[in-house]
Design goal:
Calcium-transporting ATPase, cytoplasmic transduction domain A, Calcium-transporting ATPase, transmembrane domain, 4 domains, eight-stranded mixed beta sheet, seven-stranded antiparallel beta sheet, about 50% helix, disordered C terminus
Amino acid sequence: MDIKGLTSQEVAERRSAGLVNSSEQAVSRTYRDIVFKNVFTSFNIILFILGAALLVLNDPVNALAATGIIIMNILVATFQEIRAKRRLDSIALLLRPKVRVVRDGAETEIDQSGIVKDDMIHLTAGDQALVDGELLELRSMEMDESLLTGESSTVRKKVGSMVYSGSFCVTGEGYYRVTAFGADSFASKMLASAKKYTTKNTPLQMETAAMTKFLMGIAFAYLIVTVVINMIYGNDLQTLVKTAVIIIDIVPIALFLLIVITYMIAAVRIADSGVLLQRSNAVESMSHVDTVCMDKTGTITTNRLVYEGMVPFTDPDEAERLAALFASATGSKNRTVQAMTAALGTVAFSLLEEIQFSSERKYSAVRISEGGSETVLYMGAWSALGSRCRPAAGAEEALAEASSRGLRTLVLCRAGEGPITDDAEYLVPEDMEVVCVILVSDEIRPDCRETIGVFLDNGMDLKVISGDDPATVDALFTLAEIPGERRIMSGDELDALSGEDRARAILDTNIFGRMKPDHKQEIISTLKDRGRYVAMVGDGVNDVKSLKEAQVGIAMQSGSGAARGVADMIIINDRFSALPDALVEGRRTVSGMRDILKLYLTRNFVLAMLVLVILIGGAAIGANAVPLLPTQISYYAVITVSISAFMMAIWAAPSENKGAVLPGVMSFAIPMAALIAVFGMIVYAVFWTGTVDGWIVVDYTDKQLASMGWPTIYDVTDPAIHEIGRIAGINAMNGMLIFLVMAGITQLLMITPRWRFLSLDGNTHPDIRPTVLVFLLYGLMILVYTVPVPELCDLLGISRFQPVTLEVFLALAGLTAVWFLVSRYALRSGRLMFLYRFTDAWFRRKMTRVYGHRKE
């Protein structure tokens, strides 16, 4: 069939009609998606509603406090994501999928966005179908549709068969006419109708989601109790809304935005080093990897193959002629065949029938007409064809000797006349003649020893899973001077095992040879079932299933389109040595998030404890006391968390990450929050009592009273007592606020200890900047209280305690020092770990129930 394709005019007409492919694989979110998902989260909407309610109730200051932090987070997150998106998109533009189409009778390569309906697309082995279509012409074509259907076996195609986007060509080639793309494609309709669509969530995402749900449960329980209390005491709506704002702040609303920003910053850093992320959270996944599985090609070797000769078992000239004939006739023009053709040249042939190569079969075959007779040739791995050959003296010795030199080996066999396929299966005759052993070399990467050494130095288990002879891989390890003990297994040896013996062999072996694609997938699945966190590095069609199965799939830029399509990361320019940078960046990301989570969750648990005791506990005895005002909570968050978290995300240093992140964070956050809350409530009680007893005196104007509080004692008929109660509540809040800010700043010294005496576990932080930040934040706090702008204090709802500011600050600074020493002792000795163990037990049950088994 003569494929002409569309004319230029027909293409233009379809473009004008809008019949153009609009479906693209994005490596970053769209601008609309960035804005929408940063603004319209469930808790953002709740806080915006509460802020609007406060505006309606003529309380603009607290309305701004309720939404100010969220607005700032939205602006920063959106700006950072858009900035990172532009950088990533500029790099990804170089890696966008291309397709070969026939137009005006000539084949040309275009971007996937240029495909129009009825285009004629040429699909070859290793290509992934980007749109749907009907096959018009093909040659020995088999498609893998496992990503769409879940079926592991390949599908043999015929003229008129459909090609679906998301499937990929395993063998052969074909031309198909585009019938559907975008939302009309089979894959899109399947996803739209699916009941559940899952993505790869990282451990940190799963952990923070579980903890956020826990704090959400606490917050909603508090809200229900607060509504009941307000109904009992008949509070006004404004008081209820303010209280709701305080309670909602228990939930770490900005945490997910911060994680996204951290991922995007890391993605840009990694892209600059030569690795493009197709899934932004893959950088964090890399930090959890303890097992790296990889194909030999592209990692140990460059996949630049050279024909090194043959070992003939018939007349040498005849063996060379048959090898050249096979290389000329086969449609499997892989790199091995290309190397043979470059060395042996091409010869004329008349092809009758063929079986193209696939990693599952590990052989290919041709049936050729020569001068009235037939020549049938098979070429492939000895493990696939050897049992079908008659004995050839010295063949196995030649194979072993070549493998020991690190050479790739294939056996060329001649069979008797007859068909090699039928409608149901491919045929491999018995009693074939061994013609020769083909020898091919592959260049060893100069940087592979250093790169693999980085993985080994970081305690990772390295496993090479190759389709080549395991002895060849072993020899390449020797030639590359890669250290370590080698435990070798072939696919046949693995198939002979079952049950626990099979699983144990997979765990113990580090060089797998003659492996089929299903073997690779099974190895990774078994490792995951045994608690391993697995990265897979591959480049070919035979790696697609294993790349998809692994927690982190990594493809080479020069690899097949199918491999790149399912990978989480792509190594730009095939620079394997860039991969350790991704490991370092992943560990930097998790290390930074661990410290940030300690800040965030400590503050959230402090608020939860204070609300429980002061708000709900006070209401139970008839006092409507609140721990802090919305404006004060915003001030507390900015000084102790927001500034520090942003800087720590930038300054994070890589560290070893073993197991789950959150249990270690909670072992710090809960005891620390309990101590801060206890000391804070002591300050609250002292300032309340001191004001009522008259030894703390502050004169407030009516305007200041209006901006800083509301009645704090109910059912009091004496106006003087009522006024004292208001002032006592305001003083108590402000005194506690100063302590909370001091403690929140000071805890940075324990989270990022520069010196050993500050450390809780003996480890120190290599960077002095977090320590400097502590003193800068103290300076900012003092500036807020001493700046001669009373309106600022009124706006924030804070008191400067004039004329006793110095005495108050010195007293609270002394109490903060006592708190620091007590906290340091309690966390070092584990005296408060019982508070953590209850939450940890709940957390682990939650993770197991919601997310299933995973390594802790």
